[in-house]
Amino acid sequence: MEQAGSVGVWTAIVALARSEGAPASLRHAVLACAQSLGAAGAVFSMAYRLSVGTAGIRGEPLLACGAIAGELEELQFTLGEGPGVDAAAGRSPVLVPDLADASARGRWPAFAPAAVDHGIRAMFAFPVTAGTALIGGLGVYRAQAGSLPRQELANALVFADAMLVLALDQQSGIVPDVDDLHDTALATRRAHVHQATGMVAAQLNLPMADALAALRAHAYARGLRLSEVAADVVARRVRLSAGDMPPSHAPQGGISPDDADPPAPPSSIVPD
């Protein structure tokens, strides 16, 4: 069931990309997510730290499908409250089946009423993470109150994983095929990939997100699987160098506990 759901998510993303004659991208993942989950909108936000040495993290909207979703994601960014903010802080999904409920209004006194006023009754927020590093977040907005069915929840988690891989590839200039994308998404969940990422981060003095990007770029350049490169790094058969780093940061520098502020990119709205 999980495997079938994962394949289905990647198939939906790639189908959208092929309909445009383009490689799969974050934009296609956001669009496919909204369509798959019957959402009024979906947003991918990039995480960044408020200031050096602080614990506060915000999600700057980067890609939005649906103007209302983009506006509400921006509102969370401005207010510093909302399901997306809490998902980033806790590194775990925040599922809100009814934003009109008293518990939601009590938890987010400014955001929840504003969302309802905009015709949004449910929101589901998922952190996009690489090991301990927070890359960003996925926000799913629905016009009807109610929980996500079990399979849709599983698919949303796969979409968050897909966005991680596509963010890494976007900053590395990688254009892989669907089988490689799927394999990489599965590999990022494995313990030895996290261990290898930590080793590369320590060796090259990199944030965790950039270390994972370096592993991904190294694997792609050599026609290897991410899991294979990770195993070689853990076994100390391979040691990455600064030359393995992609030319930019993922995306523009992921957040790790000791990172300074990366620059915030402008938000953009994906046409429905």
Characterise the protein shown here.
- The protein is 49% helix and 16% strand.
- The protein has a six-stranded mixed sheet, sandwiched between helices.
- It folds into two domains: 2-162 and 258-270, Beta-Lactamase; 178-244, no CATH class.
- With 272 residues, it is α+β, with helices and mostly antiparallel strands.
- The chain is globular and about 55 Å long.
- The two termini are 29 Å apart.
What order do the helices and strands come in, and which of them pair?
Layout: H1 2-19, H2 26-36, E1 41-49, E2 57-65, H3 67-79, H4 83-90, E3 94-96, H5 102-107, H6 111-117, E4 122-130, E5 133-142, H7 150-172, H8 178-187, H9 191-204, H10 208-221, H11 226-234, E6 268-270
Parallel strand pairs: 2-6
Antiparallel strand pairs: 1-2, 1-5, 3-4, 4-5
Helix pairs in contact: 1-2, 1-7, 2-7, 7-8, 7-10, 9-10, 9-11, 10-11
